[in-house]
Every structure is written in structure tokens, then in C-alpha cells.
Amino acid sequence: MNSRITRRKLLKNSALATTAVLTMPYVHGAYAAGSLALGVWDHWVPGANNALTKLVTEWGEKNKVEIKIDYITSQGEKDKLTAAAEAQAGTGHDIMSHRDWNIQIHQRVLEPLDDVANSLIKQYGPISPVAEYLGKIKGTWRGIPTAVGSQVKPTCSRIDLYKEHAGIDVVDMFPADESKWDKAKTDTWTWDTYLESAQKLHKAGFPVGLPMGQTSDAVDWVGAFFKSYGVVMIDEKDNIKINSDETRQALEYLKKLMAVNPPEVFAWDDAGNNRWLISGKGSSIMNPPSAWAVAKRDNPKVAEQCWTHPMPKGPKGRFVGQLPQFYGVWSFSKNKSAAKELLLHISQKESIAQLVEASVGYDLPSFKSMYDLPTWKTVAPPVGTVYGYPPRGDEQTSMFGAPARAEIGAQMYNQAINTVMVSKFCQGNEKLDEVIKWAEKELEGTLRT
Amino acid sequence: MADTLHSWNPTVATTAARPASKLLKFLRRRSAIAFVMCLPLMTVIGGLVIYPAFYSIYLSMLNKSQTRFIGLSNFTYLLSRDVFWMVVEQSAIFALTAVFFKALIGLVTAHLINNLPVKGQRKWRGMLLVPWVIPLALSTLGWWWMFDPTHSALNWIINLFGGDEIAWLSNPYWARFSVILVNVWYGAPFFLIMYLAALKSVPEQLYEAAAIDGASAWQKFVHITLPMMRNIIAITILFSLIVTFANFDIVQIMTAGGPRNMTHVFATYSFLTGIRSGDLPLGSAVSLFMLPILAVSAIFILRGVRKRGREIG
């Protein structure tokens, strides 16, 4: 028998072995052990952290893994600072929460998680394109999208004010049962209708409140709006596309819309629109159900009139800004196999159901197949108020920065180029061409390698 | 055997005593003691100031993903950006205006307190120091609530008197005014206490002699007080300039650099590019731009102080 290993044979066998490993489904380790340290986002919903702690500790006890969880607040970007410090130092937690662009930012020190992600996709079907854009870097999953803290920012309208002053019944248009949605009605919910109703509500003394600062609430809704108008800043091939008719059309529209917003929207942080709605002055915002949840506690009469539903439709479709969170495993983690096992466990639908319930529907999974969880249908008052929170019907998710490469998108997003453009045009009264020229120059800067 | 042991003992004792006495001798030297006493502080400064400073310089010369040395490219890139020049302009406006008003208010209040009867001085001194004693992040949050874009307490008062609401934080120019105002409010007590100490050290005989010569209060101030306080004024201004240029908390809490990037200062812009946008090398380059500006002002001010020190000496 000729057992001599030739170079050709070795290469062939290695290639076959590599292919086999890569295509192998994720197989649970028979036994995980040791310890795991988690640095996770500190939930603002009281009790939501407890649900995650329970899930994780139960798994730890079952698998004989010692668990340590640190809840890190996102106030003042403390979570991002911690992640940056751990990435630089090459030591810290095993599993870390990453918001928005942080997977892309720390990709070099994040363990590939294709096995876990592909296993979940196989189980639950297609994943949100935004989650894929942010978590899958150069074809490799570096983070697993989690429901915890993940959100979209659809419209939250006051039922009574819309009915009385704008003649629109948002509950009738988007009832808490998707099978009852009438396309003829939902198709009337466009940006033109929104402007018309915003003007009426402004006249009645209840303006809509759309933030135009440089924080994520503002960037996300403007990003979704731009997308629905077909505005592209930079395409996949690094071409700057901002100087377009679509951009002009969108900015001209926003000039009219911002005129019927309160003037202070240009200084609002992410809590500004929440406060606006809760105060009873505002008729509509674009936000996760956090504003409604706080209103339930602080101003129940307002909460009873809140209805979350899809965004208005533009010439290029109906889009809602999505901001997913991820769990990443540091490449310097000492217990990667246990970390992967744990991520798989807390990403199961049964686990997600507990997390969504504990967050009163705020946490949003990235799998559409999980949007049938009962929480969104039962939460009240009024019953079904957040049914329209997960993207349903023709609503698609968007992320400002896409379709540009993620490292470029991250800069566009964090520098809030879209809202600064709108502010320059609508508040600073700069000429449209000058604003576009300014944006072109800023976008050129983001292409720096 | 026993002899051997005996004969060993003195030898051991002598060899042990020699380094001990050397150590004692070394420790007896005043400079050595000073060095040992300073060692913990030097270690802290080395670890928390010098090392990060050099690491920051190193970082600023790497590319975005920190995989390649790119020399001064981050700096040249920044110099080509309009937003960065706006940050330079704003930082200069912020620091110079705030330091000027802090020094002016500090000087005026120090004089007022100095002219109060001794019994009342302590009370006023204590009260006026309060802004400086409260943690800055907390007091800024308090100011933010007063300037809140939607529910401003100040606007409520203005409305009571029939005035129009002011867009404290949503109008870029008012936002600049607001952040400077908070910085002046916080920093003026530092100047007050320094100037008050300087005023107390001016010999009373000088004023008495000037009074005999018929000098007015203004002449006393210009010809006695100011020259005697020049060094302390220069040093406080330098110190405050450094701290104000590097300010982060006030702008970050109140405006986070907005609206339209028009209130960003070096520190907040560095945070935006370095931490939020994940470009640590560029963030380091932004913060290092403060270094030459502050170094030049430090050289000029300290040279003046030394010169006056020699004249007095």
C-alpha cells in the first residue's frame, strides 16, 4: 500500500477538511465548563435585567459553568468605553454587548460566530438585513443579534388627536391583527399624508415631535425617511451619490415638515421626543415603545391614547429605522465554546419570549419568525398598542449608512451627516446646493482608509 | 563542628551589615529620601499621564484599524476638514471668552469680599465657592434642566415677565453662550479664591503711602494691586486656559456638540471620532492638537512670570 503523502494529496485533503469544517452545522459540546464573564447592556425597563440573569444562571447551573454578569449602562456611552478599553487591553469579559456599529469597530478582536448564527438562521429563517449588515463583516458573523435592547423606531401617534384634528383613525388603519390590515387603507399612510396631518396638528396646538439633533433617534428616523425617498449617500462601491434629485426632493419636503415641528427639536437628545409625547403636547413621535411605557407610569391618560404603527410610505417604499444589539465573544476569551453554547441558548425563541415579555415588548428579535410572540398583542393600555412595533406588512428595516461599507457607514451615522444636512437647510437656512456640497465633502472624508 | 559554626556567625553578620549600612547611608541622604517619597507619585504620573500621553502620540500615527503606521496623515486629514476648523474656532472662542469672564468676575468679587468686614468675609467666601465645590457633572445637569429645550425653567421665568422664550440649546449661538455661561459660573470661584489670597498678601503700607500721596482708588488698583497680582493672574489664567481648553463635561452634557456641530470643542470632537465612531487614532490626533496651542501659551505666560520674579528678586 502506498502511504506516501504528496504535496498535492496534502493540499487536497486539507481543502476537503476545511470545507467540511466550514459547512458543518453547529454541534453542541457535550459538556461545557469553567467560567464566563458577561458585560451586557443595562436595560432601562425595570425587571428586564432579571429575566436575562435568570436565563443565563439557569444555563450556567445546568452546564456547570460559573457565570458573572456585569450590567453596563449606555448612559454617557459607558458600554462603548468599556468595550473599547477591553479591546485595546486584550482582556476583560468573555461575552460583551455591542450596540449599533460596535461589531464592525471591534471586528479584529471578535471571534467568528458563523456556526452559531447559521444554526439560528437554519432554525428561524431569514434574519433582518440590518442585523446582517452590522453583524456580518466581510462574510463572517462577528456578533449574534440579540433581542435585548434591539429596537426599531416606528410612528407612535395619539389616537384621539389624530382622529380629532387630522381626521385619521390610526387604530382602524393598523389594527392589532395584521390579517385585518386593509392595503387600500395602509397605502394612504404616506409621507404626504403625514405632512398634511402634521400641519393640521400644529395648527391645533399639538405638533408632531421629530428630533433633529445628532443622536440616534434623529439619525434613525431621518435615515428611514431618506431611504423611502431613495436617497443614497455612498453606494457599495464607495461612490458618493448624495448629489441627486432624490436628495433635493427629500430636503425640500423636510423644510415643510420641520416648519411644523417645535423649534427645539434641533437640540433634542434621545429623550426629547419621549418627553414631548408624555407631556401631552405632542401628537406623534418616531420611537420604540419606551415613551408609551414611561407615559403609562407618569401620565396614564396619554398612554391610553398611544398607538404604535408603521412609518409613512415614501416614493421608494416604507422603511423604519432599526438599531439592533449584538453579543460578541472576544477573541481573547478563555472559554469560547461555553460562550457560544450560551449565546445559542439565549437566542432560542423560548428564551426570546421571556426577554420580550420582561421588557414589555421593547426588545425586538432580528428574526421575523419571532414577531408572533404574544406580548405585542396583549400589552395594554390600550390593548394592542404596541402590536405595530415589530415591522409588519410592507414595512422594511433600514440603517442610515447602508449600503456603504460598514466602516464608512459607521462614520456617516456617528457624525449624523444626514441630520446636520437637514438642520443646515431647515434651521440654518443655507442654500440647498451648499448643503449638498458640504455633505459631499464630509462624505469624502469618511472614505479615508 | 561547633567551632566551624561559631566561626561562620561573625562572617554572616559582617556581610549582612555591609549592605544594610550602605542602604542606611543612602537613605540618610536628603535627596534619596526625597526621591523615595516622590516615587509613588512618580509612578502614578508615569502610569496615568506620561504613558497614556506617549501611547496617544503613537495611536495618532496609526491608520483607522490600527494596523499600519501612517505618520502624520491623521493630522493632515484633520487640517483639510471644515468641521475640524470649526472645532478649532469654537474651542478658542469657548476657552478665551470663558477665561476672560472668569478672571474678570473673580477679580471684581475678590475686591468686593476683601473690602467686607472680616466677620462677613468667611460667609461670603463660603457661599461663592459653592459652584466650584459641586461635582461638575451634577451641576451641569442642573443647568441643562434650566436650559431644557422644551421645559426650560429660565424660559418659564422669562414668560412670567412677558418675554419671549429663548432657544437656549437649539439655536447654535445661544447654545454657545449657554455652555460658556456654565463654564464661567463653575470656574469663577477658583479665580476668586486665588485673587483673594493675592490681595491679602499686598502689604497694607503701600496703600497707606499711596493714600498719603492722594492716590484715588483706581490709581491704587492700577499702580499697586495689579502689579502685585500680575504673577498670580498669569498663573491662574494659564491654569484655567489649560483646563477650559480641555473641557469635556459641560459641552457633552448640555449639547453633545450640536446643533450642527456648532458647540463642539476638542475633547467632545475627539470623543465623537475616537469612541463613538471607533476611530481611536483620529480621536487621538484631535486631542493632540491641543498640545501645541497650550504649550505655546504656557511658554509665553511662564516666561513672563519668571521675568517678573527676577525683577522682584
Describe the SSE topology:
The complex is a heterodimer of chains A (449) and B (313).
Chain A: H1 7-23, E1 34-41, H2 48-63, E2 65-72, H3 78-89, E3 95-99, H4 102-105, H5 114-124, H6 129-135, E4 136-137, E5 140-141, E6 144-152, E7 155-158, H7 159-166, H8 170-173, H9 183-186, H10 191-203, H11 216-228, H12 245-258, H13 272-278, E8 284-286, H14 290-298, H15 300-303, E9 306-309, E10 313-314, E11 317-329, H16 336-346, H17 349-358, H18 375-378, E12 395-398, E13 400-403, H19 406-414, H20 417-426, H21 432-446
Chain B: H1 2-28, H2 30-59, H3 73-79, H4 82-114, H5 118-133, H6 136-147, H7 153-160, H8 172-200, H9 204-212, H10 217-245, H11 249-254, H12 266-276, H13 280-288, H14 290-312
Structure, explained:
The complex is a heterodimer of chains A (449) and B (313). Chain A has 2 domains: 32-151 and 324-378, 3-Layer(aba) Sandwich (D-Maltodextrin-Binding Protein, domain 2); 152-322 and 381-446, D-Maltodextrin-Binding Protein, domain 2 (3-Layer(aba) Sandwich). The model of chain A is unreliable at 16-25 (pLDDT under 50). By secondary structure, chain A is of the alpha/beta class. In chain A, 45% of the residues lie in helices and 15% in strands. In chain A, helix 2 (48-63) links the parallel strand 1 and strand 2 (65-72). Chain A is built from 21 helices and 13 strands. In chain A, 53% of the residues are buried. Chain B is mainly alpha-helical. Chain B has 2 domains: 2-59, no CATH class; 73-312, MetI-like fold (Orthogonal Bundle), CATH 1.10.3720. Helix content of chain B is 80%, strand content 0%. Chain B has helices spanning 2-28, 30-59, 73-79, 82-114, 118-133, 136-147, 153-160, 172-200, 204-212, 217-245, 249-254, 266-276, 280-288, 290-312. In chain B, helix 2 (30-59) crosses helix 13 (280-288) and helix 5 packs antiparallel against helix 8. The longest helix of chain B has 33 residues, at 82-114. Chain B starts with a helix and ends with a helix. Residues 1-14 of chain B have low confidence and may be disordered. The interface between A and B is large, with 45 and 33 residues.
